[in-house]
UniProtKB/TrEMBL annotation:
Name listed for the protein in its UniProt record: Lipoprotein
Domain of life of the organism encoding this protein: Bacteria
Region (Disordered): 237-275
Organism: Planomonospora corallina
């Protein structure tokens, strides 16, 4: 398991923002005064106003560390340490500005176990999208996007449970689920401003090679992963916001709901109501 350096990933899904940029569309058809009074308009000084994400915390504070309790042979101290590592990995993968704007995800790579780090960097931006590890982090295509303001809205949770692997024996598994909402616009331009959401639900795995040894960690399997407000059919592992407000196929979905919806068919592009 661990010798291969592989992270088994769920198929990523893109949801185009049918109404994500509705405020900007309305702005085109209204007088300036009317647009300014419309709570749906996404503005630079209040890019999350009117969105469910407005209630989310700012940045990594949105991923709370729960009370740590012993899990199997792993002490409460181990569990607390694992939670902190998971939180730092999420912060580096989804909130590091250099990585977000398409640069080399150095902050994230530094946090990986040395063995997995080697695999990650070797395959970063690989020409074969199936081998490309860029998808381990959330990055906009270089030169396409700039962040509006310095706030990303975040809501997430962590939980710990026992696990087992045939190679390393007992493990501590931290499952994380989080939504990250970004306010963005085309790079070098004044508008339009849209919101993009990244959703992730996956596992970090922790173990010791020997009793009393250091607690190692690994990016484990993904359970679910998708983005909303981004273009479908990306040729690589980078994300491109839907600045043109084109909807996808099928009925609109609620990006903030945890209720299961009918899975999309291969090649189908979903639609979200609002981000």
């Amino acid at each position: 398991m661990f010798g291969r350096g592989v992270r088994r990933a769920a198929a990523a899904m893109c949801l185009a923002g049918a109404l994500t940029g509705c405020g900007a569309l309305e702005e085109l058809g209204k007088a300036a005064g009317e647009a300014a009074a419309d709570p749906a308009v996404i503005t630079e000084d209040a890019p999350f106003r009117g969105s469910p994400s407005e209630r989310f915390a700012d940045g990594i504070a949105g991923v709370e560390i729960p009370e740590a309790k012993a899990v199997g042979r792993f002490s409460a101290k181990d569990v607390r340490s694992a939670y902190q590592v998971s939180r730092r990995l999420l912060e580096a993968a989804y909130l590091d500005e250099k990585s977000l704007l398409g640069g080399k995800p150095e902050a994230y790579a530094r946090l990986l176990d040395p063995e997995q780090r080697t695999f990650f960097l070797k395959n970063l931006d690989h020409k074969d999208v199936k081998k490309d590890t860029r998808g381990w982090v959330f990055s906009f295509a270089p030169g396409t996007t700039e962040l509006v303001g310095d706030v990303v809205k975040v809501q997430g949770k962590l939980s710990a449970a026992p696990g087992r692997d045939k190679d390393v024996g007992e493990m501590l598994v931290v499952t994380y689920e989080a939504r990250f909402v970004y306010a963005v616009r085309p790079a070098g331009k004044k508008g339009p401003i849209v919101r993009v959401m990244a959703y992730t639900n996956a596992r970090h795995e922790f173990w010791r090679d020997e009793p009393g040894g250091r607690l190692r960690h690994w990016e484990g399997d993904e359970i679910d992963r998708w983005s909303a407000g981004t273009e479908c059919g990306s040729p690589d592992a980078f994300h491109r916001p839907s600045f043109r407000y084109e909807g996808g196929d099928g009925p609109a979905q609620d990006a903030y709901s945890d209720e299961e919806t009918a899975p999309l068919k291969e090649g189908e592009c979903g639609t979200v109501e609002e981000i």
